[in-house]
Write a structure and sequence with these properties.
- This protein is an alpha+beta fold.
- About 55% of the residues lie in helices and about 15% in strands.
- The protein has 10 helices and 7 strands.
- Strands 1, 2, 3, 4, 5, 6 and 7 form a 7-stranded mixed sheet that branches.
- The N terminus is likely disordered.
């Protein structure tokens, strides 16, 4: 008998522990099984491997009909066991799927509750903050009476803090709207060049305080774009503010527009700041997350900014791209659809 014949797939190959089964049925004795196994081992050493059924036939301990019957019975039992295992597996999958769906529904409910809570708290904070900002303005302008220089300085600091708090509240409201899918985009023909110039101008004061140079590159005749002017203005302002915040004194932030092809205008913000580790780039988009989470972290912020930036950019049918080298700086850019006459 050749090795090629042995290597062909036969029904016996699908039957596990056939020797024990034949002994249990009383067709051969335990001693007979040991003789068959010894015969198999001896033939294997001689380069003539035998399957158990073939060895039984060779030693005339079983005839062909009996061997076929045994193999058929075991194959039927194996198929039944597999069918039962499949039914149990299907049931477990259904149960796990139901558990997962329930968990996802619960998670969705919790997410909505969080968004609603943030929205409600933010709106409630707006009213008292408006009063605080109003009275601070009256005090600084001495509408309620004269103040000394030290008082004026203290009120200016309080006014800046109130402005920062107002910005945070606005971000929280925007975040809650985005989380609930209620942030609408009013896409119109927008003068992106003017938006960039105004944002750059408004950031000069903060940049000067930090010793950072802000450079706006707006080519002449740059086409208008399809965008929500208010929200794109917020996006650009957020990216520019981040660039200034993470750039050491003596560095620069360049905000630029560039035509790409005949249908796109690419807006980019490039800084010479601390950069982002390649392994942590995606983390900057996680809400309420800061790369520096230590109790003494140097840079402020809530971790909402870039998460909202990406949502707004994607709401314009665009994508935000990041290119960053740790210790050298980062570039954030996104394209907008050009609108020509």
């Amino acid at each position: 008998m050749s090795n090629n014949n042995i290597s062909k797939l036969t029904p016996e190959m699908l039957v596990p522990r056939m020797g024990e089964y034949i002994v249990q049925k009383g067709m051969i004795s335990e001693d007979d099984l040991q003789k068959v196994l010894s015969f198999q081992q001896e033939q294997a050493r001689l380069g003539k491997p035998y399957m158990l059924g073939q060895a039984l036939l060779e030693l005339k301990m079983l005839d062909r009909d009996s061997l076929d019957q045994v193999i058929t019975e075991q194959l039927i039992q194996l198929r039944t066991a597999l069918q039962s295992a499949n039914r149990n597996l299907e049931q477990r999958v259904k149960e796990r799927t139901a558990d997962l769906n329930e968990a996802l529904e619960r998670l969705s409910e919790l997410s909505k509750m969080k968004a609603n809570f943030v929205a409600n708290i933010s709106h409630e904070l707006r009213t008292p903050l408006t009063h605080i900002k109003g009275y601070l303005e009256l005090l600084i302008t001495e509408s309620l009476g004269p103040i000394v220089e030290e008082q004026h300085h203290a009120l200016e600091i309080s006014q800046k803090s109130a402005t920062r708090l107002g910005t945070l509240i606005d971000d929280l409201i925007t975040f809650s709207l985005a989380s609930r899918g209620e942030m609408s985009m009013k896409l119109v023909k927008a003068d992106i060049g003017r938006i960039i110039s105004l944002v750059a101008k408004s950031a000069l004061s903060k940049a000067e305080e930090r010793g950072v140079q802000v450079i706006a590159v707006v080519p002449e005749n740059i086409p208008q774009v399809q965008a929500d002017p208010e929200k794109i203005g917020w996006v650009v302002n957020q990216l520019l503010d981040n660039g200034i915040k993470f750039t050491p004194s003596g560095g620069s932030v360049v905000i630029a527009l560039k035509e790409e092809g005949s249908n796109l205008v690419v807006c980019s913000v490039t800084d010479t700041g601390i950069g982002i580790p390649a392994s942590r780039v995606n983390e900057v988009f996680e809400v309420f997350h800061q790369l520096d989470e230590s109790s003494t972290r140097h840079f402020g912020g809530t971790g909402l900014g870039l998460a909202l930036v990406r949502q707004i950019v994607e709401g314009h049918g665009s994508m935000l791209d990041i290119q960053s080298v740790e210790g050298e700086g980062s570039t954030f850019k996104f394209p907008l659809l050009a609108v020509r006459e």
